[in-house]
Design goal:
The protein is an all-alpha fold and 653 residues long. The protein has 35 helices and no strands.
């Protein structure tokens, strides 16, 4: 190595740099010392961006010598010189390799790809070295140069190395930027979900490191971090990564993402960046819950000062603006541009995805404030002041108003099918479930239409009705609400939804949805005379049959009592003879109905009277059934025989 140092010194003292011909002679020399000298001169005097010269250097030097030099630097091989200079050899070889990799045709060679495992080993063993940046540059350039480059990086343990090293890289440095680019390559170029499924812990560690950059930086790298975090966390395979992040005792990653998102949303940035920040906010809440919106904004390594309520207000306002813009664009594409030519399918789908993100965020905000609304103590200890709540409610009212205008426009155009409309009904239903009196006049006008909206792949408005059930159940608790319900034709819609729920053997819908539908029907039937509502024969026949099927194999008292109370109220409007005259109602149906009523009046009735743990609700339902039976029993002789025959039943007056 003394010869190398003397050559460097002589070159430094020379009045003019060596010529390219001098480099080539040394690089093609017969001894290792000559080649080392040539390499040293190349690193000192050649412009690293002069690709033609670098290519000539590569051809002159050949791959064998450079490979031996790298191995010697790693302590494995023998190149001329003292072994005590191993570190200098390693630095020289890595520097030359990173320079050569800047030439794409060199980076794509087998010789370069074969060195990926060696450079990963160098990074692992020399984590604090001065040439770490050159190592990362080589890995990025070679991995990106051809398809199997990233595969070699992955198969050589690149994910593990990056996961262990990224937290130690200087914030905002070029080497951190290169590491992030490598992560982006791995996530985007490998088969979908491969890294998420096989390396959730490692990927989570990368998320922590990248999130810190997202919070701290105020340059272009901040947006690189934003897009990378969104890509990782919004993947359909990100479940295992979410689970690891949830289990972390330190939630600093979550605070970093919150601070970074607030930075983006409150500053003048491109609409695409703001949308990406909303995508990331949705991911963060899917991991940390809705409370993420009101989490801390204090980081030990940053000097930031945000009001505690700033995040939720920014996310709500940005989502509101996004919703207004997208709905306006969708309306134009559907009803104006389509007059001349159909809207581009890909453009439409992208807008639908973006709308879904904004809707999801608004729903999470609705869910969050509903939690505080249920618990007054949580409000008193919450960072959300009364003023903040007022702003949130105002923002939500304005957002729902925009959505209702979009639905009104669709109604005027006779459009009732599409996932955009279905998503709009869902967000309206979510908000009205918490604020049933909001936008009352608009809801009164649009309720019937919303109950007819179908998703793109639906043959009935099942999902729309399901989304609206919570508010329908609430408004039918009073007479005015029942009148709106009846005028919108909602009874048949809710009955159809309930029958579908009962008959869907593979339904993933929570049983609470069935009870919501039942409660809604029950509310109306109890006020039937007040609102002068007449039952449709076919509608109530199908409902009686479905309720009998629902209870056939159950021993759940709440199910039996709910079904029988609805049946009892329906029977009070007709008689056995009229029921049996209906072409779709057979004697077998009457027998099944009779068995249901017997179980509720006799078996369940006895259980309710003997068990103090039963709820008031079930006792109230029993009262509805027994009082109803007293009213209509004489009109249903077959039912009376089944209920009272051989049973120790006492009719209540």
């Amino acid at each position: 190595m003394e010869q190398v140092q003397s050559l460097e010194a002589s070159s430094s003292s020379s009045s003019s740099p060596p010529s390219l011909e001098d480099f080539m002679k040394l690089l093609k020399g017969k001894t290792d010392s000559q080649r080392l000298a040539g390499l040293l001169l190349v690193t000192k005097f050649c412009d690293k961006n002069d690709q033609p010269t670098i290519l000539n250097v590569y051809h002159a030097l050949g791959s064998t010598f450079l490979h031996r030099l790298l191995l010697t630097g790693m302590g494995r091989g023998g190149v001329g010189g003292d072994n005590s200079n191993r570190q200098a050899y390693l630095r020289l070889s890595v520097t030359v390799l990173s320079s050569l990799a800047r030439v794409s045709q060199v980076a794509a060679t087998d010789e370069m790809v074969s060195k990926i495992p060696l450079i990963l080993e160098v990074i692992s063993n020399e984590s604090g070295s001065s040439f770490r940046e050159e190592c990362y540059e080589f890995l990025f350039l070679v991995s990106a140069a051809r398809e199997d480059g990233i595969i070699t990086l992955y198969d050589s343990g690149g994910v593990n190395v990056l996961a262990s090293q990224m937290a130690t890289l200087p914030d905002g440095s070029h080497v951190m930027e290169l590491a992030m680019k490598l992560v982006q390559l791995i996530v985007s170029k490998l088969p979908a979900g491969k890294v998420h499924v096989n390396h959730p812990s490692e990927l989570s560690n990368m998320v922590v490191a990248i999130a810190k950059q997202f919070a701290l930086l105020q340059n272009a790298l901040k947006f690189d971090a934003l897009y990378l975090l969104s890509n990782i966390l919004s993947s359909s395979y990100s479940g295992p990564v979410h689970a690891v992040l949830q289990s972390m005792t330190c939630g600093e990653w979550s605070t970093c993402i919150r601070v970074g998102i607030m930075d983006v949303l409150q500053n003048r940035v491109a609409p695409a960046e703001k949308l990406q920040a909303l995508v990331l906010a949705e991911c963060a809440m899917s991991i940390a819950g809705e409370e993420w919106l009101i989490g801390s904004t204090i980081l030990p390594f940053a000097h930031n000062s945000f009001p505690d309520n700033r995040c939720i207000l920014l996310v709500l306002e940005s989502s509101r603006v996004e919703i207004a813009v997208i709905l306006n664009e969708l309306a134009y594409l559907k009803y104006e541009a389509s007059k001349n030519s159909p809207p581009n399918a890909e453009t439409f789908l992208v807008k639908l995805r973006n709308l879904g993100v904004a809707f999801s965020l608004v729903e999470m905000i609705i869910k969050l404030i509903s939690k505080f609304g249920e618990n007054e103590e949580s409000i008193s200890t919450c960072i959300l002041t009364e003023s903040t709540f007022t702003k949130i409610i105002g923002g939500l009212n304005e957002t729902i108003g925009v959505v209702l205008e979009y639905l009104h426009d669709a109604k005027d155009h006779g459009d009732r099918k599409g996932n955009d409309l279905l998503a709009s009904v869902r967000i309206v239903g979510s908000y009205l479930a918490e604020a049933p009196s909001a936008c009352k006049e608009k809801i009164k006008e649009l309720l019937g239409y919303m109950l007819c909206v179908e998703g793109e792949d639906e043959s009935s408005p099942f999902q729309s009705v399901s989304f609206l059930l919570p508010v329908l159940c609430q408004i039918t608790m009073d007479k005015d609400g029942c009148e709106i319900f009846v005028s919108a034709g909602a009874f048949r819609a809710v009955v159809g939804c309930l029958i579908s729920l009962i008959d869907s053997s593979h339904s993933k819908i929570d049983s609470s949805t069935i009870f919501l539908a039942c409660d809604t029907i029950l509310n109306l039937l109890l006020k039937r005379e007040e609102v002068r509502f007449s039952l449709d024969n076919l509608c109530y026949v199908e409902l009686l049959q479905a309720l009998s099927r629902w209870t056939e194999d159950t021993i759940d008292t709440s199910v039996i009592m709910m079904a029988s109370s609805i049946c009892s109220l329906i029977l009070d409007t007709t008689c056995e003879e009229a029921l049996l005259r209906h072409p779709k109602f057979k004697l077998d149906n009457l027998i099944a109905l009779s068995q249901l009523l017997k179980r509720s009046l006799v078996t369940c009735g006895q259980e309710l009277m003997s068990d103090d743990t039963n709820t008031n609700t079930e006792a109230d339902l029993y009262q509805i059934v027994s009082s109803g039976y007293s009213s209509w029993a004489e009109r249903f002789p077959h039912v009376k025989v089944v209920v009272e025959g051989g049973a120790n039943f006492v009719r209540q007056s």
